[in-house]
Specification:
The chain is an alpha/beta fold. It has a single domain, classed as Dehydroquinase, class II (Rossmann fold). Helix content is 38%, strand content 18%. Strands 2-1-3-4-5 form a five-stranded parallel β-sheet, with helices on both faces. The longest helix is centred in the N-terminal third of the chain and has 15 residues. The chain starts with a strand and ends with a helix. The model has no long low-confidence stretch (mean pLDDT 97). The chain binds 1,3,4-trihydroxy-5-OXO-cyclohexanecarboxylic acid (DQA). 1,3,4-trihydroxy-5-OXO-cyclohexanecarboxylic acid (DQA) binds next to loops.
């Protein structure tokens, strides 16, 4: 089983950026924890981060046939991107949306997700544990 983890804009700045919302951990350390959990669960895992909407669309398109499941934090594109939603719909690879912060407890504009309705589900508010919970969720869903 192969899982792809996709992170959107500004998530490369984790550890330094808005620590009150996103915690102190870096994306590298989240990915290291995910890699360890994936190996414990006996699944393959790969990672992609981009600040560019089109690159995220291209990566999702290339996931079709190459990955069994997706964990995606579209970051700010969650609230704006019909293109990412359409890409998820087109490829039909099961996906879990994750957020470090509880987007439903923040500004009004963050409460809308264009991508969550085309995912299996959404996990938000557990900081880096959102990703680890999402890995358990997608693997259990696929098994
Ligand atoms: C985020 C929430 C988004 O609203 C924000 O734009 C982000 C991070 C989160 O993980 O909590 O960049 O996706």
């Amino acid at each position: 089983m192969k899982i792809l983890v996709v992170n959107g804009p500004n998530l490369n700045l984790l550890g330094d950026r808005e620590k009150e919302n996103y915690g102190e951990v870096t994306l590298e350390s989240i990915n290291a924890d995910l890699r360890a959990l994936a190996s414990e669960m006996g699944v393959e895992i790969d990672f992609f981060q981009s600040n560019t909407e089109g690159e995220l669309v291209d990566k999702l398109q290339s996931a079709k046939g190459n990955f069994d499941g997706i964990i995606i934090n579209p970051a700010a594109y969650t609230h704006t991107s019909i293109a990412l939603r359409d890409a998820l719909l087109a490829i039909k690879v099961p996906a879990v949306e994750v957020h470090l912060s509880n987007i439903h407890a923040r500004e009004e504009f963050r409460k809308t997700s264009y991508t969550a309705p085309v995912c299996i589900g959404q996990i938000a508010g557990f900081k880096k544990d959102s990703y680890l919970l999402a890995l358990r969720a997608i693997v259990n869903y696929l098994r």
